[in-house]
Design goal:
This protein has 12 helices and 6 strands. It is mainly α. It comes from Scophthalmus maximus.
Length: about 325
């Protein structure tokens, strides 16, 4: 049995660059590098690489969809183990968490896809394939909505927690075009769930959302996060999780309507309270305080808004 060495190397994405793919190298299985087509051996390597965001925009690509990297079951298993180790060491390695979800979630994605197909609104989403990006959001309109509306509270969540929907990586390793979109939709809906559930992006808030997602989606990645996330909480937050937030998150994950079957882009003006009632989600028993961040996301939103307002009309 071959000794396998895992080399997990993160390259910090540069400006105007985006994550493109992950290569796998192994003693027992030589894998062709997707980009340079040269063959490597002697290690298992999970590497985050960068490429131009326009790499796949010309319509010429290998695979089932832009950015798709075909992999064998063995390669998927190696990716799952390597990314799982990295994600355990650092839960904020979203690139590794993304790979883990793609390589372990096939059956859960099939179930989610079927639930969406059986829901009129979910079927529309599968047909139209909307994306949640800064480029698709009307930030000025969302900012003008009244407090308590879903759009205004989502924008407030982005500002308060200094996050952006553009940080969600594109799907690479799901070997079905429709299931790949379901996974992409799940990722882009994640921050909307934070808004609906009233949870910040600190560790306690993330664990509570993962408990909800584990019960709601059945994705192994979510179950793993729900199981191991509490290990990073202090005694006080553990007590909050196990006595109030945890049971609430699990119960609502089980009882709620499929959260992927909601066309959130058409619900910005709806109140959070009304949307919760429609989805059968109860208000949280306690809301953890948001952790302070060093960066200011508001400046990014203002920059995007100014760029749009100064863009010359066609």
């Amino acid at each position: 049995m071959y000794m396998i060495q895992y080399v997990i190397k993160a390259l910090r994405p540069k400006k105007h660059m985006s994550i493109s793919y992950i290569t796998i190298l192994s003693w027992s299985s030589c894998v062709q590098c997707f980009k340079c087509r040269s063959t490597f051996a002697s290690a298992v390597c999970v590497r985050q690489l960068c490429s131009s965001s326009s790499e796949f925009t010309d319509g010429s690509y290998d695979g089932l969809y832009p950015g798709h990297i075909p992999t064998t079951p063995t390669q998927k298993a190696l990716l799952a183990v390597g990314s799982g180790v990295a994600a355990l060491q650092d839960p904020y390695r979203h690139d590794m968490v993304a790979v883990l979800g793609e390589t372990t979630g096939h059956m859960a994605l099939v179930n989610l896809r079927d639930r969406m197909r059986n829901d009129p609104e979910g079927y529309t989403i599968l047909t139209e394939r909307p994306r949640i990006r800064l480029s698709t959001l009307d930030l000025s309109k969302m900012a003008s909505l009244p407090d308590g509306s879903f759009g205004r509270e989502y924008l407030r969540f982005l500002e308060d927690n200094h996050v952006t929907p553009d940080s969600r990586a594109d799907v690479k390793f799901v070997d079905n075009e429709e299931l790949a979109y379901v996974m992409q939709r799940y990722r882009e809906v994640h921050d909307l769930l934070h808004t609906l559930l009233g949870m910040p992006t600190n560790m306690l808030g993330e664990v509570a959302v993962k408990w909800f997602e584990a019960a709601q989606t059945g994705l192994p990645m979510c179950a793993l996060g729900a199981l191991l996330g509490p290990l990073r909480l202090n005694t006080s937050r553990l007590q909050t999780l196990f006595t109030s937030l945890g049971p609430w998150a699990l119960q609502n994950g089980w009882q709620a309507r499929c959260v992927l079957s909601i066309f959130y882009e058409r619900r910005w003006e709806q109140s959070v309270e009304e949307l919760r009632q429609e989805l059968n989600i109860d208000p949280p028993p306690v809301i953890p305080s948001a952790s302070k961040k060093r960066s200011t996301f508001a400046s990014l939103l203002n920059h995007r808004h100014e760029a749009r307002s100064t863009k010359p009309e066609a």
